[in-house]
Fold:
Amino acid sequence: MTMAEGYEVNEVSLVSYAIPEKANSVEFKQISLIAKQLLDHLNQPNKIKQLLIANQPGNSSAMVQAVFIGYAEELGFESEKKGLFKEYSMGMRPDYYLKTKSSGIIIEVERGKTTINNMDMLDFWKTHLCNHANHLFLFVPKELRQNETMKPKKEFNNVKKRLEKFFFSGNETNVHTLHLFGY
Structure:
């Protein structure tokens, strides 16, 4: 399937990060298993085709969410869970949330504003502030075009370079793990 000139979309990618003290933990393995289940679901041929359509200029992240959210809900994720940020007056909500044994996972799905409006950083910050989640599943396009004539931006690689630094020793935050999905 061709998205843009010379660009083949044939699978969703996943890169996972953990703060050093959590890298070999049971918690990281459990969260990674859920990420792998989502990845396997997204890499079905019909889902790849739907993601290709959803990642066209003019489409919103809601179209991307629609490709997998039914499955995420089967795994226990809740849409725009309220009350996770009640300590703050900002009215923030995640796209989706799953309570885990010791914490929780926030899913955030981006498309057009991933790095243009620093939405990747906002999603990371939101997870850092959340007292009910230490894990972020962030979905971003591998390549992004805002219009048909625009040269694609390599969003997945850009986000990876920006956020991986939070997982270097000494740079830790309250986000114990990041699972970055590139569609």
